[in-house]
Amino acid sequence: MAGPKRIAIEATELGKAYRIYPSPAKRIAEALTWGRYQGHHAFWALQNCSFKLSPGASMGLCGANGAGKSTLLKVLAGTTAPTKGGYRIDGRVASLLELGAGFHMEFTGRANIVMNGVMMGFSKREILSKVDEIIDFAELGDYIDEPVRTYSSGMGLRLGFAVAVAVDPDLLIIDEVFAVGDMYFQKKCVDKVYEFKRKNKTILFCSHSLYDVRQLCDEAIWLNHGKVMAQGDSVFVTNEYSAFQRHNIGEMEEVLGDIFPTKTFEQDEAPRQLPGIKDARIYKLGTDEEIYQITTGDSIEIRIWWFNPTPEETPVHLGLAFMRQDMTTCGGMGTHLDGLELLGTGGCAIVRIPDIHLLSGQFLVPVVLFDEEGVHKYQEYLMPDNLTVRTHTRDVGLFRLEHEWEFTEDAVPPAREDPQEGTEKVKAGEGA
Amino acid sequence: MNPEPESAVAAASSASLPLREEDGWVTARPTPFTEVLARLVMLPKLVLEHRDLITTSVRRDLEIRFRGTLLGWIWPLIHPMFLFIVYYFIFTKLLNFKIPELPEGQESAMGIYMFCGIMAWAGISESLTRGTNVIVDSGNLIKKLAFPSEILPLNVTLVSMITFGFALAVFLGGCYFTPIWPPPDPVLLLWIPALLGVQALFTYGLVLLLSTLQVFLRDTLQIVGVVTTVWMFVTPLFWVPELMGESVKPYQGMIELNPVYHLVQAWRGVLMGEVTVPLDGVPTTVIDTTRIASSIGIFALWALGAYIIGYVLFILSQRRFADEV
């Protein structure tokens, strides 16, 4: 590994097993026999995970609940020891396994900033020099000198995030923190993460939203029951994962995360005028006739009336998707995906879609106003009606694929040279 | 950045190489003996490195107790003061307990004698009952933040030493400003820092040991409750071993096996002087530096033993705390 290229974080065959004792008596028996009697059985929360990241890279972890994502982050954050393999990190680590872990409710926000900071291994002086910056980022104003128990949950989260990112780490470990807080806060978090990326910091990140993973990360690992199912380029991994998820009807919510992240948020305060969507409708292409029932092969246009009071501070992008009722995204487009810019303080965006190939069914058409990175959603607007498509042909599937048939007399297929094409997939255990 | 999946294969195949700690690898290998030894010796360095964390959390612990109260910081003084007054009146005035060998005017000092012992004992027993659960109670911190967890038992120890300090201040204040008991010899006051030091070391060792055991066996807290009650009665708090006469003699050896016996004797020696009965029959309190030094010495050995056993067990188990709490 002795190369000139620096490695920010490296893990080799990392594994973590938890010991499960059926009863305290077995635990004592094991302790008294100095481990010769094995009273426990091991539960492997993570197995054989290897990766390497260079400075400035970011890696996302995806997988269902209990897949081992949090375990991996905990091991790397140093709160729990690995059972197999090892890891090494070059530089200072900040981990956000939980926002506001260690906050004490009876103390003021200011006192908690200092306590949380020294808990994360920074000196009081370092923290005190950053207090103003932290208060500024958390936007708590005069509340900073009130006890934390008087804070709304959103304020507590803002403070926790502000402390964690203020300390300027080389490696940032984040566990599912974007899924909480109001929209404005989520936007700030995402911006901060991008700022980290620009500063050549390394980010490890875990999310249920495949969309976030794809947008924020260069690489990704998909874990399932502690095993690495796929790893590598984030687009490749998220596609593998969502393909797998489609077979798992029980976990439909995760499929929704494929293109449009599902986030719960509380609107505990709306301090400023955010960008938004006024209305969106579907018309027959080139006419003013509103239409929500079409036939395969029809042409439509979608008009979106949007506004953005502060285009300098909050550049926006528009996106929309066609989703079948089982939440399969059949198609989607966005100004950020097409490399376009949405300028000005508002207007009407028209998407023309000639010759729709969708086959019969009901389609949800969510229209989304994104931030400039295409990660954070300012608003998700649903059409007044679902799009109903009827089909006169007897094609099967989601789309009608343009095709034609031809019949010849030739009954012998030509010989092939190499019948085995290599697959690109990396499965767990292959490299061991 | 290496988006190709092949990079993962390359990383995985390098696993056959040994991962050495010297190269910065964190592995599953148990803490080596040399590192355990190094950490035993280097505790002051750890304390110095994390002094901000320690002072902040000790202050927080103290503040939590008195925050929102009307009298605030006066409370830690009020508790020992009342204890002092109660012991003084019940044993000295009400029951008229006497230590017959004491010189004229000091016969009814039994209350003060008891207060002195209980003060030292309370410092230890409070740490044990509060400290046994400290790792389990801080489970969320241990799971979510990476910090040296030996700081948690240390905080408990320091907090109890500080409350003990308040009681000590009350005692000395009582000696200097009231006629109840003469103030100790100024030379003897020099022993106080040493005594505080060994008491803190002993307490810390026990809290390290018990908080570790509690993580793996939750019965520990119950056992500690029973043991401290028994321990309190076998320690000469309510009785004076020198004055019990023949009934105590056969057990003197066992009594002296109790480390807190030596601690209490040392505190009494420093704060109250030694009660002696010379041959000519006129009892006096004298300062017996040799007795004090030997009491402290024996207790210091116990303290060192408790620290070594407690901290070694703690270090060896530390890596599993986050999985068990």
Number of strands of chain A: 19
Task: Describe the largest sheet of chain B.
Answer: 2 strands, antiparallel
In terms of DSSP E residues, the strand content of chain A is 25-35%
Helix content of chain A: 10-25%
Strand content of chain B: under 5%
Q: Could you tell me the mean pLDDT of chain A?
A: 81
Structural class of chain A: alpha/beta
Give the topology string of chain B: H per helix, E per strand.
HEHHHHHHHHHHHHHEEHH
How far apart, in Å, are the first and last alpha carbons of chain B?
38 Å
Q: How many helical stretches of chain A?
A: 9
CATH hierarchy class name of the domain at 9-91 and 170-256 in chain A: Alpha Beta
Supply Rg of chain B: 24 Å
CATH topology of the domain at 9-91 and 170-256 in chain A: Rossmann fold
How would you portray this structure in words?
Helices cover 23% and strands 29% of the residues of chain A. In chain A, helix 6 links the parallel strand 6 and strand 7. Among the domains of chain A are: 9-91 and 170-256, P-loop containing nucleotide triphosphate hydrolases (Rossmann fold), CATH 3.40.50; 276-390, Distorted Sandwich (Coagulation Factor XIII, Chain A, domain 1). The longest helix of chain A has 16 residues, at 183-198. The model of chain A is unreliable at 249-271 and 422-432 (pLDDT under 50). With 432 residues, chain A is of the alpha/beta class. In chain A, the strands form 4 sheets. In chain A, strands 11, 13, 14, 16, 17, 18 and 19 form a 7-stranded mixed β-sheet that branches. A 6-stranded mixed β-sheet of chain A has the order 5-6-7-3-8-9, with helices on both faces. Chain A is globular. Chain A has helices at residues 24-32, 69-77, 109-119, 124-138, 153-166, 183-198, 210-216, 234-246, 252-256, and strands at 9-20, 41-53, 58-62, 84-89, 93-96, 171-175, 202-206, 219-224, 227-233, 276-284, 293-295, 300-307, 316-324, 329-334, 346-353, 361-364, 366-371, 377-382, 387-390. Chain B is globular. Chain B starts with 5 loop residues before the first helix and ends with a helix. The longest helix of chain B is centred in the C-terminal third of the chain and has 30 residues, at 289-318. In chain B, a hairpin with a 7-residue loop joins strand 2 and strand 3. By secondary structure, chain B is mostly helical. Chain B has one domain. Chain B has a two-stranded antiparallel ribbon. Chain B contains 16 helices and 3 strands. Chain B is 66% helix and 2% strand. Chains A and B meet through strand 1, helix 1, strand 2, strand 4 and helix 3 of A and helix 1, strand 1, helix 4 and helix 8 of B. Strand 4 of chain A pairs antiparallel with strand 1 of chain B, so a sheet runs across the interface.
